[in-house]
Amino acid sequence: MAEAHQAVGFQFTVTPDGIDLHLSREVLKHIYLSGVTSWRKRAIRFKNGILTGVYPASPSSWLIVVIAIMSTIYARIDPSLGMIDTIKRTLSVSGYMTVQTQTVLSAILFATGLWLSLILMLRYTLKTLLSYHAWIFESHGKISFCTKLWLSLVKMFSGRRPLLYSFQTSLPRLPVPSVDDTITRYLESVRPLLDDEQYNQMEVVANDFKKDQAPKLQKYLILKSWWATNYVSDWWEEYIYLRGRSPIMVNSNFYAMDLLYVTPTHRQAARAGNAVHAMLQYRRKLERGEHAPLRALGVVPMCSYQMERMFNTTRIPGIETGEHTAACWGHNTIRRSLDFVQHLSDRKHLVVYHKGRFFKVWLYYGGCHLWPSELETQFQMILNDTTEPQPGELKLAALTAGNRVPWARARLKYFSQGANKASLEAIETSAFFLTLDDEVHGYDPDKLGSLDLYAKSLLHGKCYDRWFDKSFTLIAYKNGKLGVNAEHSWADAPIIGHMWEYVLATDCFHLGYTEEGHCKGDINKGLPPPTKLQWDIPLECEEVIEDSYMVAKVIADDVDFHGCLFDEFGKGLIKKSRTSPDAFIQLALQLAQFRDKGEFCLTYEASMTRMFREGRTETVRSCTSESTAFVRAMEDKNTTRLDLFRKAADKHQNMYRLAMTGSGIDRHLFCLYIMSKYLSIDSPFLKQVLSEPWRLSTSQTPQQQLNMVDIKKFPRYVGAGGGFGPDSYRFGQNIRQAMLDIRALFDQKDKKEKEKEM
Predict the structure, then answer these.
(1) Which end of the chain is less enclosed by CB atoms within 10 A, N or C?
(2) What is the pLDDT of residue 720?
(3) Which residues are named in the active-site annotation (predicted)?
(4) Which active-site residues does the annotation give?
(5) Is the pLDDT of residue 332 over 50?
(6) C-alpha dihedral over 210, 323, 250, 533, to 10 degrees?
(7) Apex 240 CA angle, 427 and 472, nearest 5
């Protein structure tokens, strides 16, 4: 056992002469190296804190300002307008220093104050510049002089070589839209879904709200926006995610797929070794702030706040039920009894699940993280282990897949002491969770439904072989395929996508494998082997585990997933038609939905608000009067369908831009609703708005956030993922046909133009 192996490094014996200590030099060496590593990380964090704190200036600029001020002093010029003399007179230690020393110290203090003032001025100027969003509403390829000037100024004030979090304090706050604008946009969004009588009733309810309750709620919300960093994000995380008492598996967690057409090695342990090593590299760059901040147009910085909790993070279950908390909002004692996100600064191990057993694997040895070949060896030991799971261990992770309250109660009752507490703590404090899956999955064009089964496995697995509370679970399949299941409360999909893109690119293009498919590099044979976690689970707890498993299994069995690989054309052809790819897809979805159901529905599309500090998402309501007019026209061959398509696409693109710039509908109404609960104000309008079901829910994750792989050169190095809600087996086929039909509109136009030229 690893514990026994390590214990021999420290021994003592009791003799008549006293206690005789025996210390191993090897153990002392590792203790020393571990301490050096910890202090090195602290030093890096301290340095990055200073660099980020003074950005867009730099520490060297302080020296320049000091030298400039000192030069003017020696030239007998006072640039401080008497402030240096004032500082000199007020120095409490002036009686113990020479006049020259007092002058130098006063000049340095003045220069430091001037330097800090310049930093604040630069930061405020940059924040003001980043509050300008007119550029996003300009036509693609047509940049106005005002926007060109603005871009130049942003580049000028953005500084050089920013760290990941350098722009955080310069990002503007998310603005609170006016109630009039939000109500107007809301009524416009529901108009195509309601008949005249229903719409008139909604209009009356909305106007009553705008006149009676809204002014008071809006004032308090504006007050919160002045005080809080972001008036939406904290409530969004708490009320949408952490207060939920239903299972997070499927309902909240999401997945990311491996490369579809490429599998670098079919050795499970080797692929996991490279992936884990790449994740450790990513985490190190994250801790050091070495990842470049994402920028729109290569200039406008995006918020990086969500990336802080990617590793060393776990969602801890709470007991309180949603019904009880609804009546008790505002009490400080409730927050602790709800779920919360536990984030730790630095973890040096991960926990691996394989065939019902949990193993603890150290990621560092001698102050350095393990190499891929060493990780492969560790994982292969686990794969070769033939021990049986302990009683209750096989389906233990099902607790994280079922309802939150039984899991929270079981955690308090059965995992608060002894071996269970230590083992659970090992899982919850790990860097992340790894499942060495005993199944074979991945996309196989020769096997019908292989992509569907792959996605379902990533989404829920067997309901007990992923730790759904961890920030993410890395899944390595028997055939070398990978995947990720991510908990949603701490961040949105593009954040995981950023890390996953780095991991896959590093795995394939930087680390690589030997000809036999093993990880490259030497192996330290002195590494301690993986440690099997110990459990003492009573029969009562096993019953709770089984109940949670059955709840999760019902959900998993109800998932009907179909993935559609569309390769007839891509975004390049869509852009040539002068259309937004996003608008094209959304209109195709509306057409497919209408052909399937014969009616329109409330449609959700996620948009990001990361141009604002701590921004997350906003909703774009994709079903509009313009889109419904286009869809109906597609069933009528005599109408000018292409013109209607362009109007609908322009409308959708404008709504997307409004959402990105803080002028969306749903987050504002959501916060007004939360505020109404705190103030005990009953609002029929807000109740009705928030109870409306989203029949069609869509989202997208950007590709090529890091540009580590040129997809034009390596077109097979792509992945896939996603899904949406309608419960109809024909919907996927309708999407494909809808996209082809819309493309045909442009083909017909091109054909007519060529005929005219002839």
Answers:
(1) C
(2) 75
(3) 488 (proton acceptor)
(4) 488
(5) no
(6) 140
(7) 25
